[in-house]
């Protein structure tokens, strides 16, 4: 049976899942056997082990009781439940690191995979000033983003197609120097052989098909998943019909957006301070 490789650095959920798998393997139990002892199904165990479902406190306590591990899983589950990553996003990131193609749409801020360290730091520090996260959590966010970006800079990198709402480049984040560096980075990104960058102009109006950030991932086996998020939570969609409908909307978005050449020209106007 093929076992999904887990990256413990991918997310707290991935680290927790790897711990469950290791402890289960040490006992020679199947997922169904552990599920029976822990009061859940083997399918639930599989979803937690692969990072697709975060552990609840009740689930973690069930694992501790089943495996006789004291409060080991309860303590590790706190790192998952207290993470600043919204629900659903860790599962998306796990797929993102192995995707063959990545399609992104973003509103309001530069997509994370295209952010410079200074831009990402400015966003995180803004959350700290608002009291939404701690300075330590801000550091974790910036480090986590750096690990995400490193995975798409790998040998044989994925194709990355990005459409940004016009608001992304006009919204000032950090100092003028931070924004200048970020715009320079966007212009450089557009020159790479495996990338495409487009701006969805305000004039698109009601023709813009998405009102929330969207990610579409084509995996190595050519299956696709779609991820969308609101302010409070994210959702990873695997059902083929719904994913293909999202892909169709994305194609429409690309057709209505500025070409890459015109998008880069608009970015260059901002870089030069032109109105």
The gist of it:
The protein has 275 residues and is of the alpha/beta class. The protein is built from twelve helices and six strands. The chain has two domains: 70 residues, 434 Repressor (Amino-terminal Domain) (Orthogonal Bundle); 183 residues, Endonuclease, Chain A.
Describe this structure in words.
By secondary structure, the protein is an alpha/beta fold. 51% of the residues lie in helices and 12% in strands. It folds into two domains: 12-81, 434 Repressor (Amino-terminal Domain); 89-271, Endonuclease, Chain A. Strands 3-2-1-4-5-6 form a six-stranded mixed beta sheet, sandwiched between helices. β5 and β6 form a beta hairpin. α1 (12-27) crosses α3. The chain is globular. The mean pLDDT is 89.
Distance between the termini: 59 Å
Task: Give the CA-based shape.
Answer: globular
What oligomeric state do the depicted chains represent? single chain
Q: Find the structural class using helix and strand composition.
A: alpha/beta
Name the average pLDDT.
Answer: 89
Largest sheet: 6 strands, mixed
Classify the beta-strand content into a percent band. Answer: 5-15%
How many individual helices? Answer: 12
Any idea of the CATH topology of the largest domain? Endonuclease, Chain A
Low-pLDDT sequence parts:
none
| Element string (H = helix, E = strand) | HHHHHHEHHEHHEEEEHH
How many structural domains are formed by the residues? Answer: 2
The largest sheet has its strands arranged as 3-2-1-4-5-6
Radius of gyration, Cα only, in angstroms?
Answer: 21 Å
